[in-house]
Amino acid sequence: MVVLVVLVGFCFSAIVGRLAVLQIVQTDEWQQRAVSQQLSDSIISPKRGTIYDTNMNPLAQSATVWTVIMSPKDIPDDETRTKIADELSVLLDVDRDKLLEQTQKTNSQYEVVKAKIELPLRDSLAQWVQDNELTGVFRTIEDYKRYYPNNDMLSTVLGFTGTDNYGLYGLEAYYEETLAGKAGRIVTAKNGWGDEMPNELKYEKTVDAEDGNSLVLTIDQYIQTYAEKYLEEAVANASATNRGAVIIQDVNTGAILAMATKGDYDPNQPFTVSDPTVAAQIAALAGDEQSRALTLARQKQWQNKPIVDFYEPGSVFKTFTSCMAFEEGISTETDTFTCT
Fold first, then answer.
1. Strands 184-189 vs 204-207: parallel, antiparallel or unpaired
2. Which of 289, 284, 233, 290 is nearest to 260 (CA)?
3. What are the tens digits of pLDDT across the range 131-184?
4. Contact predicate 146/168, CB 8 Å
5. For residues 103 and 136, is the Cβ–Cβ distance under 8 A?
6. Are 107 and 193 in contact (CB under 8 A)?
7. Nearest-5° Cα angle at 123, 98 to 207
8. Cut 0.90: pTM above it
9. pLDDT at residue 110 above 90?
10. What letter would DSSP give residue 21?
11. Contacts for 22-26 with beta carbons within 8 Å, 24 or more apart?
């Protein structure tokens, strides 16, 4: 009996000790785990702020796109799953086998089929869903896609964003906190199987997204256009091997009216090498050598040459030397000099 009492007491003490660890020492960790199991948390993307020139012409803006969501739990049978994989993979240009695998997750109500589809494709999808009586299986969530209406104009200054709308280069990256806004959330309770609770029971909480602020630059789009046009001609005529750069400044205020670099790139397709000669050279390589060459080419075309590259003023500074001579009266416009 004594031995039995000691054993029971030891086991009971071990259980109490374990409960104390779980409920006191590891409280925060287990609460987080519980919340992750009990709640489904979806992000609502904020609309990124617009970048304007000094005349309020948009240089970078966000357009509405949609993400396609599928609820495999509501697909009635295997025949319908095969039909979805066969037809929707073609319509949305996604991998058929991957889509078929998604349709077989019968406990899931939230599978992302494709992100950032535009209005014409969304309308085609809506018609397909209606024709096949699958309105309970598919829905679309509003999202945003960054685009640049003037293509390569001012690209090295503006920079670009990634697929998640996060600024990766240029002003888009530098003013990320200003432009990005604050994401919203849709928090929905889940049952013991991991499925969403019925909406009519009001287990859903929505926190609206806060749109980002906009930027107004001192850049004048029309001056920028002419600067880039004639810079591109100069680079071609001089057979420049390290690109060209122009800055046009208002001498009264210091405002930058134009800042151009050639060659540059299209921020709508920032990972495409814009120089066809360089692109062909990279395509002729293979393996790690090709990867390194591609990385270097991208980084070079993304760089804003007027503020990144070092430059020895040389002849440009002769303007100031000449002005000093005129101001001091030691030289005139007709004087000539031999400089060896």
1. antiparallel
2. 233
3. 988 888 898 888 888 999 999 999 999 999 998 889 999 999 999 999 998 888
4. no
5. no
6. yes
7. 75
8. no
9. no
10. I
11. none
In this structure, are residues 269 and 160 in contact, taking their beta carbons and an 8 Å threshold?
no
Q: What is the mean pLDDT of the chain?
A: 88
pLDDT bracket for residue 194 (50, 70, 90): low
pLDDT at 40 over 80: no
Tokens of 149: 């209406």
CA distances from 111 to 101, 106, 197, 203, 229 (A): 11, 11, 16, 20, 47
pLDDT confidence of residue 289: 93
Among 41, 40, 186, 195, which Cα is nearest to 105's?
A: 195
Q: Once rounded to an integer, what is the mean pLDDT over residues 233-244?
A: 92
Is there a contact between 209 and 44 (Cβ–Cβ < 8 Å)? yes
> And the tokens for 196?
């969403």
Of residues 90 and 315, more confidence is placed in: 90
Residue range 241-257, pLDDT digits in tens: 889 999 999 999 999 99
Complete DSSP assignment for 110-151: -EEEEEEE-HHHHHHHHHHHHHTT-TTTEEEEEEEEEE-TTT
What separation in angstroms does the CA of 143 have from each of 118, 128, 140, 184?
Answer: 10, 21, 9, 12
In whole angstroms, give the CA distance from residue 273 to residue 264: 9
Name the E strands within the chain.
39-44, 51-52, 58-70, 111-117, 138-147, 160-161, 167-169, 184-189, 204-207, 215-216, 244-249, 256-262
Check if the beta carbon of residue 73 is closer than 8 Å to that of residue 109.
yes
